[in-house]
């Protein structure tokens, strides 16, 4: 048996580097994506000096006390003329409209009589007032958004106002999920004696999405090695990762193993963990696509995903490893000797602010009735057989929607 750490290290060493793709800034698809490169501005903002108020553009020297001036005309936002303001005259101007050459202040309409032909200013103008200067906000070459930014709606505003239409982001790994087993029927189907609902398929599909990856297909296959081989051959042509469940232990119908073991590209191991002992991993096809063959028991699948698949999807998606936390055991339990246990637990803060672990009372790899209470996996090291109250353990949060 190998340790889960060694198995994961081997997988991460083989996992491909993040891929980059180009996405449009408009349309909403950029939200939550990770920028693969710095974005710098090719323009200055504001692009032209403009008025910050509805009012009158003036030479401030003309308005150093209450007075009246002739109004040359109107400048609205979007006016593309190049205009100038002669001394002794004024333009009526709107917020965001380009300042006429020569004017050095805007007098807000509220401080005037609002005249159209002639206007009366009630107070003196202050030089520079209510003007937005070209380049005062952003200069050409300024860093708008650094590489590694998770794009939020306000970042989209930065990109769009700078005229950026497309950016490079880290591609979300495209994942195919395959459940295998003659006994499996889709949820909602009627079951004959001996049949069960496929829960791993839908769970893995949800886990893939929760991990920020992209589910491209979720299929169920019978226990037929040829069907498994054919599906895998097709899947690795376009997917970045394939995850199978079931068919990798020591039974007579362990067809995933049967389909892959002779190809030599997937290694099957016994990993010293509970649940999740039988694991397979390899790179398949010309594109060397990572293929995880996870065991079929639902809790083995859940744990295997969190321990092996999630760190791989994170690495391929350009994300840093997830933080592990420490928590204190409230009441103890026993753990299988010689294997690390990933126990389903509820972790809560107690009154003194400590993170406290409450284990599910049943930890079999098929037990899922108490899962609603669990929000984490607690790692009991392989050399610990009895977990005691007040022990401290590493915990990993179960994935929820990002
Ligand atoms: P296997 O790894 O194929 O030997 O399956 C181990 C156990 O997990 C058996 O009890 C299977 O019926 C069950 N199982 C396998 N795949 C699934 C699945 N997709 N959904 C629910 N249970 C499964
Ligand atoms: Mg099976």
Automatic annotation (TrEMBL):
**EC number, UniProt record:** 2.10.1.1
The record's catalysed reaction(s) read: adenylyl-molybdopterin + molybdate = Mo-molybdopterin + AMP + H(+)
Instruction: Write out the entry's keywords from A to Z.
Output: Magnesium, Metal-binding, Molybdenum, Molybdenum cofactor biosynthesis, Transferase
Cofactor(s) needed by this chain: Mg(2+)
Q: Which residues form a coiled coil?
A: none
Pathway(s) annotated for this protein in UniProt? Cofactor biosynthesis; molybdopterin biosynthesis
Class in the EC hierarchy, top level: transferase
Where is each MoaB/Mog domain found? Answer: 176-315
What biological function has been recorded for the protein in this entry?
Catalyzes the insertion of molybdate into adenylated molybdopterin with the concomitant release of AMP.
Query: Which family does the record claim for this protein?
Result: Belongs to the MoeA family.
Instruction: List the protein's name.
Output: Molybdopterin molybdenumtransferase
| Species | Dermacoccus barathri
For this protein's source organism, the top of the classification is: Bacteria, Bacillati, Actinomycetota, Actinomycetes, Micrococcales
